[in-house]
Amino acid sequence: MIFYAWTALSDSDPAALGDSDPGALSDSDQAMGDAAPTAPDGGRPGLPRSSVAMGISDDRGRAMKAGEETLGSGRAVVVVIEAVRPAMAPRTLAPCYVRTGVGWLGRCTAAGEVSWDRFFIRGRPGDLEVPGRMGS
């Protein structure tokens, strides 16, 4: 069974996604790297700083709708949705969700619509050696 975990992010800080989830940045954000313009506070405009809303759904459409509502309210600048599957953590057997490697990045367009871009998270070396682990 696949679920869709979504997180709405606000403000500007290049490290918010860059360190934790490089796959969530658009190609243009990654290509700009250090050359991207900076905001007065030193951050890059349009890159997120903090989570303002999150959830999990068994329906991608509902997750996208919830993300679109948060973007439309102006509380968030970007929404990240990732396909996840239920799993158990090694050693503790605590229930958790594991990334499947595919996600969607939602942003408002100039026309006020939400544009969704699909992205893929590459696994790290050794991920195949540990069952249930991919890019985490």
Commentary on this structure:
By secondary structure, the protein is of the alpha+beta class. It has one domain. It has 3 helices and 5 strands, in the order βααβαβββ. It has a 5-stranded antiparallel β-sheet with strand order 2-1-3-4-5, with helices on one face. A hairpin with a 5-residue loop joins β4 and β5. The radius of gyration is 16 Å and the shape is elongated. It starts with a strand and ends in a 16-residue tail after the last strand. About 24% of the residues have low confidence.
Topology:
Elements: E1 3-10, H1 15-18, H2 27-32, E2 50-57, H3 60-72, E3 78-88, E4 95-108, E5 114-120
Antiparallel strand pairs: 1-2, 1-3, 3-4, 4-5
Biggest sheet features:
5 strands, antiparallel
Indicate the overall shape. Answer: elongated
- Could you say how many structural domains there are in total? 1
- Weakly predicted, low-confidence segments: 13-44
Q: How far from one another are the termini?
A: 19 Å
A few lines on this structure:
This protein is an alpha+beta fold and 136 residues long.
Task: Give keywords.
136 residues, alpha+beta, 3 helices, 35% strand, elongated
